[in-house]
Write a structure and sequence with these properties.
This protein is an alpha+beta fold. The protein has two domains: about 230 residues, 3-Layer(aba) Sandwich (Rossmann fold); about 210 residues, no CATH class. Helices cover about 25% and strands about 30% of the residues. Strand 4 and strand 5 form a beta hairpin. The two termini are about 25 Å apart.
Length: about 450
């Protein structure tokens, strides 16, 4: 059963700012869906639209199979946990937990106390029942906030707005595991907002990556990390971040596809399943992504592709070392790379109805206002890729390759080194950042 459906939801504020841009999502019953993205990408606005605290400009919201556009928040059977907990400071933990039950006149006082004790036991906060919020740790406050949201019974959907953002790093890990265990044991449908990729990867059944109010990618944590739909998703997920550089595609029919960085190159065998989708981009500038874990120190026993560079720095991270190699590739400014035009403002009436929105989206996607299908989209992408890569401040520095090392043995600053490349785990994107070497796109 589907618990939440967002159908082409758009939100434009009175000042013309486009906060949510034609978002369509489905959340299955019992699923933990994480909305991930940088500040200002529309995560919290979407959450507030589901809760009924914001009214969408266009599109539909469905809850438990019923359209909810006109339902006020109290009729939607949703529960919400805020970043700061939003507890009543003058009430004890016991009274904060009991507060939602006092409005239900069918629940007697003894039943209220029983429910409070049961919830406190389940959240391991029995010892705090007679304290006020000012006497609690950050983790305890969030447990109380969760308990208050859930004490009236299982909601249709639980909405959590960055509940761990204000906590110390040492507290986040433990509470993150507790939240995951509680939600999965109760099978509560949850939409969880965060900008922290670790939270998203460790908690989610599926991740929705947002950028500028629009959906950039949706999938399981493993799929979104290892097979990202766009250069932005590849760059946003991963610590240390993915290496991105411009390269020119050269197709040698029947032999191989060459990713030419200018002075160095990587080869894809003709039998590689990525070679065929790359053939239309012969001679064009594309973006290549290589995660640091796909690079390992080269040795005499190593076979396959390699890249060379000079060690500019070695950083000790406790459990590993991080090396930066000067390789002289053309750098990518991810802020200038977009799969769709950036639309931060709209005039009045621009989001007027489904047909109008589709036409506007089609016109924005094509310079001449035509929507061309797969062949046309490939041609448009090819045309975009054929242009010179965008220049930006700092382009003269060239690109560093980040390499993970178990030990820096044999490496030193200023030394020329070589690294082996796990070519099957190399990504290729067009000039707009759209993945072109994956069967998923």
């Amino acid at each position: 059963m589907t618990a939440v459906v967002l159908d082409q939801v758009t939100k434009v504020y009175d000042n013309g700012v486009l906060a949510v841009d034609d978002v369509s999502l489905r959340v299955d019953s019992g699923e933990l869906l994480v909305l991930l993205g940088p500040s200002g990408c529309g995560k919290t606005t979407l959450l507030r639209i589901i809760a009924g605290l914001e009214e969408q400009t266009a599109g539909d919201v469905w809850l438990s199979g019923q359209i909810a556009n006109e339902l006020p928040p109290q009729k939607r059977n949703v529960a919400m946990v805020f970043q700061d907990g939003a507890l009543y400071p003058h009430l004890t933990v016991r009274d904060n937990l009991a507060f939602p039950l006092h409005s239900d006149r069918t629940v007697d006082k003894l039943a209220v106390q029983d429910k409070v004790r049961e919830m406190a036991h389940g959240l391991s906060i029995e010892q705090t029942l007679d304290r006020r919020p000012s006497m609690l740790s950050g983790g305890e406050r969030q447990r109380v906030a969760m308990g208050r949201a859930l004490i009236r019974g299982k909601p249709a959907v639980l909405l959590m707005d960055e509940p761990l953002a204000s906590l110390d790093v040492s507290l986040r890990s433990g509470l993150r595991a507790e939240i995951s265990a509680l939600l999965r044991s109760l099978r509560i449908t949850t939409v969880y907002v965060t900008h922290d990729q670790v939270e998203a990867l460790s908690l989610a059944d599926r991740i929705v990556v947002l950028r500028d109010g629009a959906v950039e990618d949706v999938g399981t944590p493993d799929r979104v990390y290892h097979d990202p739909r766009s250069a932005f998703v590849a760059a946003f997920l991963g610590s240390p971040p993915v290496n991105l550089a411009w390269a020119t595609i050269w197709v040698i029919n029947g032999d191989r596809v060459v990713l030419d960085f200018g002075g160095q190159h990587l080869d894809l065998a003709w039998t590689d399943p990525r070679s065929e989708p790359l053939t239309p981009y012969h001679g064009m500038s594309m973006i290549v992504g290589i995660r640091p874990e796909a690079l390992t120190p080269w040795s005499a026993k190593t076979d396959g592709s390699r890249l060379c560079g000079r060690v500019s720095s070695l950083e000790y991270h406790g459990h590993e070392w991080m090396a930066r190699l000067e390789v002289g590739f053309r750098p990518v400014d991810i802020n200038e790379v977009r799969m769709r035009p950036q639309r931060r403002a709209m005039s009045n009436g621009a989001a007027g109805g489904r047909r109008g929105r589709k036409a506007a989206a089609a016109k924005a996607a094509s310079p001449n206002g035509a929507v061309a299908g797969r062949r046309g989209r490939k041609a448009a992408a090819a045309a975009a890729g054929a242009a010179d890569p965008p220049r930006h401040h700092g382009a003269h520095r060239g690109t560093h390759l980040l390499v993970r090392l178990d030990s820096p043995k044999g490496w030193a600053s200023g030394q020329q080194v070589a690294v082996a490349v796990d070519v099957p785990n190399v990504y290729v994107f067009d000039g707009d950042g759209r993945r072109v070497d994956s069967p998923l796109v």
